[in-house]
């Protein structure tokens, strides 16, 4: 009875970590893209 109760929250917790890591990676890519765009504008490479 106790083992079955421990598995469900663990599964949701694992899924939550997956979603959190995905969101952070998307945010990091957005920051990197913004920095590259800023550098390109500073160098005169982008309109």
The proportion of residues forming helix, as a percent range, comes to over 70%
**Gyration radius, in Å:** 20 Å
Mean pLDDT: 85
Overall shape: it is rod-shaped
Return the structural class: mainly alpha
Total of DSSP H or I helical runs spanning 4+ residues: 1
Q: Which sheet architecture does the biggest sheet show?
A: none
How far the N terminus sits from the C terminus, by CA atoms, comes to: 64 Å
The fraction of residues in strands falls at under 5%
| Helix-strand pattern | H
Ranges with pLDDT <50 over ≥5 residues? none
Q: Total number of β-strand segments?
A: 0
Protein name: DUF2474 family protein
Transmembrane segments: 15-39
Keywords: Membrane, Transmembrane, Transmembrane helix
InterPro entries: DUF2474 (IPR018895)
Q: Overview of this structure, please?
A:
- There is one protein chain.
- The chain is 89% helix and 0% strand.
- It is rod-shaped.
- 0% of the residues are buried.
- It has a domain at 23-47.
- It has one helix at residues 2-43.
- The chain contains 1 helix and no strands.
- The mean pLDDT is 85.
- The longest helix is centred in the middle third of the chain and has 42 residues, at 2-43.
- With 47 residues, it is mainly alpha-helical.
